Amino acid sequence: MFTSVSRIGLTVLVCAVLLQVDARLFAQANAADPLIGEWVLDRAKSTYQGNPPDWRTMTFEKTPMGIRHTTTFAVNDVQQKHVYTFQVDGKDYPADVQMPINTAAFRKIDANTFERVGKYQGAVTETVTYTLSNGGKTLTADQRLTANPNVLNSSQVFNRK
Hints:
Elements: H1 4-32, E1 37-41, E2 47-48, E3 55-63, E4 66-75, E5 78-86, E6 93-94, E7 103-110, E8 113-120, E9 123-132, E10 138-145, E11 154-160
Antiparallel strand pairs: 1-3, 1-11, 2-11, 3-4, 4-5, 6-7, 7-8, 8-9, 9-10, 10-11
């Protein structure tokens, strides 16, 4: 049978292995979700058709239901906040009722690129391509409206906070 010293040694070994596995899984999970975090708009590097926001922040955070996307911004000193939750599986998820879309579907194109397709009453109205810089410190959101898909409606550049 095991002595108490053997049991303590075995317990320490098991805990060390579990911590290593947990650290590896945490690193893999974060590598798989590079959008996770808070992003702040760099107005000087962004372009818009029409009136740009005074400021804008986006937060992507993991929840038990998927990824919660919160966008807070102000246009002409009027603040707004949009919140919705999605999974990166290409399926439609309900958008915030204040948004100009009813549903949003996210899919991963490659390690640094995601695409959101926004629909209103079942019809695609916009496509937003989110591209992360190689270092993961910059996120560019290029929006194209379906009414004129060859024209870039906005190119928003965000810095990781």
